[in-house]
Amino acid sequence: MAEPSEKARAKLLSLNEALESGAISRVRRIINSGLAPVDVAHLIESSPPRDRKLLWDLVDKEIEGEVLQYLSDDIQSQFLSDMSAAEVADMTADLDADDVADMLQQLPERVIQEVLDSMDHQDRSRLEAILGYPEDSAGGLMNTDTITIRPDITLDVVLRYLRRHQSLPDMTDNLLVVNRQSEFIGVLPIRKLLVSDPQQTVREVMSTGGVTVIQATQHETEVAKLFERHDLVSAPVVDANGILLGRITIDDVVDVIRETADHSLMSMAGLDEDEDTFAPALKTARRRAVWLGINLITAFIASAVIGMFDKTIQQVVALAVLMPIVASMGGIAGSQVLTLVIRGQALGHLSSANFTWLFNRELIVAALNGVLWAIVIAIITWLWFGDEMIAVIIAAAIIINLMAAAVTGAALPQILKSQGIDPALAGGVILTTVTDVVGFMSFLGLATLFYL
Amino acid sequence: MAEPSEKARAKLLSLNEALESGAISRVRRIINSGLAPVDVAHLIESSPPRDRKLLWDLVDKEIEGEVLQYLSDDIQSQFLSDMSAAEVADMTADLDADDVADMLQQLPERVIQEVLDSMDHQDRSRLEAILGYPEDSAGGLMNTDTITIRPDITLDVVLRYLRRHQSLPDMTDNLLVVNRQSEFIGVLPIRKLLVSDPQQTVREVMSTGGVTVIQATQHETEVAKLFERHDLVSAPVVDANGILLGRITIDDVVDVIRETADHSLMSMAGLDEDEDTFAPALKTARRRAVWLGINLITAFIASAVIGMFDKTIQQVVALAVLMPIVASMGGIAGSQVLTLVIRGQALGHLSSANFTWLFNRELIVAALNGVLWAIVIAIITWLWFGDEMIAVIIAAAIIINLMAAAVTGAALPQILKSQGIDPALAGGVILTTVTDVVGFMSFLGLATLFYL
């Protein structure tokens, strides 16, 4: 996902003006005026669909590949689908293999094969190594541009070997040490290489213990946790036999961290974290309709509960006026607990042992806030309707619903997670159903029992 | 914020058991059994308050400072408040200056001065440089452990100079080049140093153009964007006169990225991103009460609207049964738009130019989904109550409320942001107020006009 700079923001404005007025040559000048590829990608992402294709066609051929890699999946696949396999192979020739792999995964299987066939042997075999792993695994995240050395040479030889390179790969903080079988055996940190006696051998200086080694099959969120915990810049990736496959660098991990964090926020509103801010209306409407439909079921369940008490409401209309308060306070209190537990899960703070403590804490909090707000609401209700019986009933219902909200908000994410369901996605809907049903049922039910 | 590992998760379980059974010596063995400081911090954070102090007292003196730096602000300040200034100075002696500065900021001004006075001269002046800047600025994030070189020496001299060090600071990907006035003039990437001819001078090899230089006063979220955009591992920090002050490294930026992302999620539920999952019940109840109070005002406004139509409801109870559906569908649709726009703002995708397009897109989406679900709801209503007039009225109200939700969800974050109010915090409450008021008003109002 591309990020803005101040300069890009100014360009965005003048670009939109130029597009409005149809001044194509001005548009071309803006997007090719030394703007970094990430900024061009940002301009494209910030433009409505009808302008995107136009902008893309105006991008200089040399930076096309780089621009594409910063675009979101949705837009990538749209642009790629218009290109021939040879064009794709040509465009991606200078990019990192992991970024090319990510892009290719937007294409149908058949086209991927065509693109691979149009590449030279080395590029192809690198890509195939990455494409063999799921996109969200360490293997899909890794790059194959590693500098490997043998343990039995001296640092002096290493330094001379490095000097034969035009440049080193980005984010090379470690040289990777492998044996004759390409098995990973340790790292030679550049930091150590620079301060050590050149006559020492790699084996004498290299680190073996405490080195974070990543399995190609590990999930990308696990990889992100390892990077965060150990403050890594890069880490080697090995297969099940310990053979070095490549390395993962922090820039790609930062993207994973951002996407994972985005996921919870977007899921709670029933949105996908890959959602394109400027997706066309029809596509957006279709995606959102599903979520509205699910929530409609919740709403009808709540209505059905109210319907059970229609005779009570007919006699005491104040109940209809006040009942949304009970449901809404429960929903708000519950969503606070739910959000806290979902974040606690993401941070790995929750275990079966400390969950009991948290659950009890939430019950106490619900009781405290239940009593506090029950009193406030009862007083307002009494002043409003001058009816102390309704005041007592709504107070009781508030306490009941806040307790139900606490139980649901705390327990639901754990239950959903154990069933393999994403709590951020399903939690809110289920919680609202519970707080609506309990809210209406307790308030109208108590009124029917004690008031009529 | 500490992150879990598989090992830590297993320890968490056995630790909780040991704590339950009161086996202090076993607890001590667990937390000092070669567990990394970040894991010890994780164990403490994952424990209820009553166990935390106990665990903290059992931590080995040598790793106390490191453990403390991984704990959340809340817990840091709790532990620090029990220590003397000399103890704090002693404990933090081996830590990075930026991490110490973060910790000290949890203490009262007077105590900070005492701690500074107990430090040796070098540590103190480093810390004072950082403490002079706000915690959330580049100056507060930077570290002062930079390796600086002069431009007129040869790479060979640089290499020999480096070899005089025991080790280089973590994440040293660039050496920083300064002139006699300590003004920053460029970077010598280690990558270049290693592949260049040792007889060249620093000036010949160093990079000056395209180097990201950070102003000490820049906000940390701007710093994070620069790191993400340019795939940086570290960047130099300068003051207004271009004097080099220190550097920022990606590990600290990753924390900023995670906290910023957390902020939106937690704010939308009225929670603070620093919220401690295991805060005591009283503290938690007090913090949450505020949010419930604010939402209660919303709920009473909605009730007041319903109250305006009490006579209508008395005659047609079906209205009371159905009215939550109108309000709830509006709330759900609105929060989808709200979340999308808030994320768009965070990613910098929204400008005044493309906002009009987005706004119109949302109106079209609301119209499409409004019509779709209005029809579905009308049919169900008709089947349920056998009353085509109510069916038509609820259909109209749904369309009106979904349009209102789209307008509010799209415009509100932009308006709030321009007023300096956090949309993630205030947006949801205001949106719900609008969709409740418009929902009840349109449904009950139309019924009063056309039905009675």
TrEMBL record, chains A, B:
<keyword id="KW-0812">Transmembrane</keyword>
<feature type="domain" description="CBS">
    <location>
        <begin position="206"/>
        <end position="265"/>
    </location>
</feature>
<dbReference type="Pfam" id="PF00571">
    <property type="entry name" value="CBS"/>
</dbReference>
<keyword id="KW-0479">Metal-binding</keyword>
<protein>
    <recommendedName>
        <fullName>Magnesium transporter MgtE</fullName>
    </recommendedName>
</protein>
<keyword id="KW-0472">Membrane</keyword>
<feature type="transmembrane region" description="Helical">
    <location>
        <begin position="315"/>
        <end position="342"/>
    </location>
</feature>
<keyword id="KW-1003">Cell membrane</keyword>
<dbReference type="InterPro" id="IPR000644">
    <property type="entry name" value="CBS_dom"/>
</dbReference>
<keyword id="KW-1133">Transmembrane helix</keyword>
<feature type="transmembrane region" description="Helical">
    <location>
        <begin position="363"/>
        <end position="384"/>
    </location>
</feature>
<dbReference type="InterPro" id="IPR006667">
    <property type="entry name" value="SLC41_membr_dom"/>
</dbReference>
<dbReference type="InterPro" id="IPR036739">
    <property type="entry name" value="SLC41_membr_dom_sf"/>
</dbReference>
<dbReference type="InterPro" id="IPR046342">
    <property type="entry name" value="CBS_dom_sf"/>
</dbReference>
<comment type="similarity">
    <text>Belongs to the SLC41A transporter family.</text>
</comment>
<comment type="function">
    <text>Acts as a magnesium transporter.</text>
</comment>
<dbReference type="InterPro" id="IPR038076">
    <property type="entry name" value="MgtE_N_sf"/>
</dbReference>
<dbReference type="GO" id="GO:0015095">
    <property type="term" value="F:magnesium ion transmembrane transporter activity"/>
</dbReference>
<feature type="domain" description="CBS">
    <location>
        <begin position="142"/>
        <end position="205"/>
    </location>
</feature>
<dbReference type="InterPro" id="IPR006669">
    <property type="entry name" value="MgtE_transporter"/>
</dbReference>
<comment type="subunit">
    <text>Homodimer.</text>
</comment>
<dbReference type="InterPro" id="IPR006668">
    <property type="entry name" value="Mg_transptr_MgtE_intracell_dom"/>
</dbReference>
<dbReference type="Pfam" id="PF01769">
    <property type="entry name" value="MgtE"/>
</dbReference>
<keyword id="KW-0129">CBS domain</keyword>
<keyword id="KW-0813">Transport</keyword>
<dbReference type="Pfam" id="PF03448">
    <property type="entry name" value="MgtE_N"/>
</dbReference>
<dbReference type="GO" id="GO:0046872">
    <property type="term" value="F:metal ion binding"/>
</dbReference>
<dbReference type="GO" id="GO:0005886">
    <property type="term" value="C:plasma membrane"/>
</dbReference>
<feature type="transmembrane region" description="Helical">
    <location>
        <begin position="424"/>
        <end position="451"/>
    </location>
</feature>
<feature type="transmembrane region" description="Helical">
    <location>
        <begin position="289"/>
        <end position="309"/>
    </location>
</feature>
<feature type="transmembrane region" description="Helical">
    <location>
        <begin position="390"/>
        <end position="412"/>
    </location>
</feature>
<keyword id="KW-0460">Magnesium</keyword>
